[in-house]
Design goal:
- This protein has two domains: 61 residues, no CATH class; 82 residues, Aldehyde Dehydrogenase, Chain A, domain 2 (3-Layer(aba) Sandwich), CATH 3.40.309.10.
- The chain is an alpha/beta fold and 151 residues long.
- The chain is elongated.
- Strand 2, helix 2 and strand 3 form a beta-alpha-beta unit.
- Strands 1-2-3 form a three-stranded mixed β-sheet, with helices on one face. Strands 4-7 form a two-stranded antiparallel ribbon. A two-stranded parallel sheet has the order 5-6.
- It has four helices and seven strands; from the N terminus they run H-E-E-H-E-H-E-E-H-E-E.
């Protein structure tokens, strides 16, 4: 993963994103990478399109909520999404229209064992946690039996 994440960071720089912070391995023991922040990221860059699963943040500018939702959904992934806003209607519209298995509003990575977690699209096919996670271990079966009438 270290090599893969460092590769994403290099690709971000090569594609023209502006590295604002981090971007390097920490020390030579372990597998640590500095928290990394990119600006001037565009939708077509690999760092905006892939699930990196490392300390890499891409900053993309937007004008409208509709634009944000369309751009966020224009991906083959949908593990999670988050929004920070003081407008409840904005939060509800973003949550409703985001194609993500989890949507966080005014927080991020808040999870508990009772809350189902899993993604949409290529980010997963099942749920972890909560009663929904049991579905992966169960099969639904219908049995129909014609019983004789009791006389």
């Amino acid at each position: 993963m270290l090599t893969k994440i460092l590769g994403y960071i290099e690709k971000g720089k090569q594609q023209g994103a502006k590295l604002l912070a981090g971007g390097k391995r920490v020390g030579n023991k372990g597998f640590y990478i500095e928290p990394t922040v990119f600006a001037d990221v565009t939708d077509d860059m690999i760092i905006a399109r892939e699930e990196i699963f490392g300390p890499v943040q891409s900053i993309l500018k937007f004008d409208t909520l509709e634009e944000v939702i369309d751009r966020a959904n224009d991906t083959e992934y949908g593990l999670a999404a988050g929004i920070f806003t003081t407008n409840l209607n904005t939060a509800l519209q973003f949550s409703k229209h985001s194609e993500a298995g989890t949507v966080w509003v005014n927080n991020y990575l808040t999870m508990g064992p009772q809350a189902p977690f899993g993604g949409f699209k290529n980010s997963g096919v099942h749920r972890e946690n909560g009663s929904d996670c049991l579905e992966a271990y169960m099969e639904v079966k219908t049995v129909t039996i014609a019983l004789p009438k009791k006389i």
